[in-house]
Amino acid sequence: MSLIIIGSVAFDAIETPFGKTDKIVGGAATYASLAASYFYDQIKIVGVVGDDFLQSNIKVLNDHGIDTEGLQIKQGEKSFFWSGRYHNDMNSRDTLVTELNVLGDFDPIIPENYQDCEYLMLGNLTPKVQQTVIGRLKNRPKLIVLDTMNFWMDIALEDLLETLKMVDVLTINDAEARQLSGEYSLVKAARKILTMGPRYLIIKKGEHGALLFDEQQIFSAPALPLAEVFDPTGAGDTFAGGFIGYLAKVGTINFNNMKNALIYGSALASFCVEKFGTEKIVNLTKEEIDNRVREFVSLSSFTI
Amino acid sequence: MSLIIIGSVAFDAIETPFGKTDKIVGGAATYASLAASYFYDQIKIVGVVGDDFLQSNIKVLNDHGIDTEGLQIKQGEKSFFWSGRYHNDMNSRDTLVTELNVLGDFDPIIPENYQDCEYLMLGNLTPKVQQTVIGRLKNRPKLIVLDTMNFWMDIALEDLLETLKMVDVLTINDAEARQLSGEYSLVKAARKILTMGPRYLIIKKGEHGALLFDEQQIFSAPALPLAEVFDPTGAGDTFAGGFIGYLAKVGTINFNNMKNALIYGSALASFCVEKFGTEKIVNLTKEEIDNRVREFVSLSSFTI
Q1: Which residues in chain B touch residue A303, judged by CB atoms under 8 angstroms apart?
Q2: Which residues form the Carbohydrate kinase PfkB domain (chains A, B) (predicted)?
């Protein structure tokens, strides 16, 4: 049994008030699979890169036990590249460059040994490509988590609504929940979205934490207040990866396990922002993660 | 022993997307004392109104066991009046009218029987007036909570900094914490503010809950996600009143009791926004409050 993570594997160049990077490895599937690897050891990536993506870059993933057989390498082409500059408050950013490159006509390949997929994380991509992946799995996974963004609501809403019908969990941010539902109240937004397909909705609120909804219950996960946010890139993907990785580890899907998965996802995301790119999450110890989760417990526990 | 609450007692006229009111009773001390009255029965108000403030308006406070001997009634003058219109998202509002009236030269009187003050809530007012109240108490209260706002940071920062040295707890919102400290990170902002006088800082984040800081610890209280926010007026004052009322009831000041006080304050505030003005918080039962607090427990509890 395995956890398949599909999404971009890419290069980023990032500027923050604290400094700037050259091209470094990024992409939703990179962040999510690294995060998930701390919980589960049968992780398989589906993605595409150009021949500028080095064997040493792939080795980093393999060293985390991540299977990259589904990562296509297109000779003579270039990897997806994004460059952005964060403002002083780190909550807003300007995209400087987006080069789709190999991602422009990405046709995901599911290797035969990926057909044991039990957990599927559909990272932010064209909804059509996300659908294609579900269609190419012979058996419907036990849990499908979909990440998407406002961009697809703007230009591919019909496709997105079709994809939504096929998944169990949707992760979006608060503005996107409002856009998708047409409701300002997140409670009303969640009620509407939960009629569109997903059984669970996660609304990510950045520095304000995240909300988990099912039809009956709501859980509010805090974000760890941080003295320094060094680079927010990939925090959402890291959160999603930690979330599904934890669920794959515990193996039972229910609201209580989802709550814990949110906390583990948030803990991983809180590491992610401490350094540029994947620098921090590529090298965590179990002890660091356990300590961080204890900080979340202390942050939000009270006894009435 | 008593809890003194000083602040505006006023009339408001409120417009929201759900409707509008005529002049209704409002004011920081009104909301805070009503909220506190559900926890503690020795509450005394210090404030000033004009002769337009009716005996029936005062009776509402007295019926909650609130002592109004310190509420001056200025004959021939008018009560403070504020009118505002909320936008569709309820997070922003336009002030339409502010008439200071009796509040313009408010000189707080502390009746002799108020000198047993153990808990003092300084509602949002000129920092000089807040200082005056502290100065007129013969014994320093066990706990002084100060509420203030960006307006005083803009026009009376020196006075505010003086007042800050005299208090134990400061409640402000996140933008105000950033303004007061010059730090964007709320962790850094809190560290700075905790050197200015208060031992505890509460950062109110509206629909995102509230953070409590002391020198060592952080607690994150969630806000209850609500389907309808009918009228946000007074929610912050209601929160502060519930907070200090709960602490007065338990009688011991420590971080754990403060955490619970935040939850009770948040619960009261979640009622406040359900109807116009004080309509909802004037008439709560213990059972309603207990049930609401249980919703907060369920909202934020997890077992890792």
Answers
A1: 256, 260
A2: 20-279
